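It would be a great kindness if you could assist me with a short task in structural biology. The matter concerns a single protein, recorded as an amino acid sequence and a row of backbone structure tokens. Could you please explain, in whatever detail you think fit, how the structure tokens follow from the sequence? Thank you for your consideration; the sequence and its tokens are set out here:
___
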Amino acid sequence: MLTAGTVMIAQTGIYLHTTLHGKLRIWQRELDRARLRGDEQLLDMGCGRGAVLIEAAKRLPKGHAVGVDLWSGTDQSGNRPEMTLANAAAAGVADRVDVRTADMTALPFADGSFDVVTSALAIHNIPSAEGRYRAVDEAMRVLRPGGRLIVADFWPMARKYATHIGQGTLRGLGPGYWYGGPHLGVTLLHVVKES
């Protein structure tokens, strides 16, 4: 009984750390690793309240970041475009951020519109495997040749996306992005679209 309670408390602590601090620190690190020039056009799929979108926009003084979402409150409370724009304004990047209501499986952008496409724990929310693969295909479609896809998702999903695309590297993001323990760890998929 004591062991089960201890495990439950530990998992809750890990979850809270990831939600409140860990995932943001990891995205800051990964966006720094991406070595953005600062003039890119970036798309964040499933942007929610804008954590990744805003961190990216901070690195785009001459670029622009667009976030798309269906704005469901099921997976994230306060998930509304007004909240995301308010967060962007509070971070001082409102002039480089735009949000749109859009389905990841049918993006309203022309082929090759973006230099970078990001997504953080959003694609797995699409209920069918076919829909998830369509979202990944859409991400690749809107990327310019040489553009980069950077997706963080649970290990089994990220691996399936890489297999579907037929390319990309996978890397575990470690304890800072665990949702309760290593069994719910997040993996980064990084793909460079062939020219």
Observations:
- Residues 145 and 195 are 4 Å apart (CA to CA).
- Strands lie at 41-45, 64-69, 97-101, 114-120, 143-154, 169-172, 186-192.
- The chain has a mean pLDDT of 88.
- The two ends are 58 Å apart (CA to CA).
